[in-house]
Amino acid sequence: MREIFDLSHGFDEDTYHPFGFASFRNIQAFGSHGCRHAIVTMSLHFATHIDAPWHMVEDGKRLDQMGMSELVGPAVVIDLSAAYGPGIASAPREITPDAVNQGLSACGEKLAAGDALIVYTGWAPLFQSEPMRYYSEYRVLSVAACDLLVRLGVRLIGMDSPDFDAPDSYESAPFKPVRHRKLLGKGIYLIENVGGDVARVAGERLFLLPAPLKIRGEYASGAPLRLLAMKLDKEGSLLP
Fold this sequence. Notes:
Elements: E1 5-6, E2 23-28, H1 30-33, E3 37-41, E4 49-51, H2 68-71, E5 73-79, H3 81-84, E6 94-95, H4 97-106, E7 116-120, H5 126-129, H6 131-137, E8 140-141, H7 143-152, E9 156-159, H8 178-184, E10 189-192, E11 205-212, E12 222-231
Parallel strand pairs: 5-7, 6-8, 7-9, 9-10
Antiparallel strand pairs: 1-12, 2-3, 4-10, 4-12, 5-11, 11-12
Helix pairs in contact: 7-8
């Protein structure tokens, strides 16, 4: 049986988010109803989630206008944790194009048009253990690195960070999320808070299966998702 990797963070009522913790309320109990049923209130951009273009682009696609064939497919995971991890005191916030290229070279991979890129910076473990630091000191792609990935024609980018833009992009409205607009505006989908097994597949080529909630209409700017993956060999076939 093929090994399936889950690159998603689990969450519960104790999981931090800047817009507030997820709020769960039981409305049916097994003792009284013979079943369990709860209601949850949370941000649609909570834990591991996808950003649709509608999130940051005025006329961008909503979740319900995105086909699964646009999301599912080959991906490369680059490991930049040695240069950008939380234990590197001198690490810059912005990830350069050279760093992206070095990450690809280190795993012997190149990005083809239509590939996805997962950037592992080593910050994923802080999602639960040090959430305040995770949400304030995370790494982002530089604008030049975003330009590189646009030129390469990637379909999707995922990062083990909570945002593609730095906190100062949101200090006052209207916000200035330059990287979001640049990437989403080119139809490149974004997955934030990649976690789970991501360290185990760093440096690997994967077949990526992002499965977001199928939210429709004006609220469909993003949604939590289960990010599953299987390893590929150098020829692009699934490993047994």
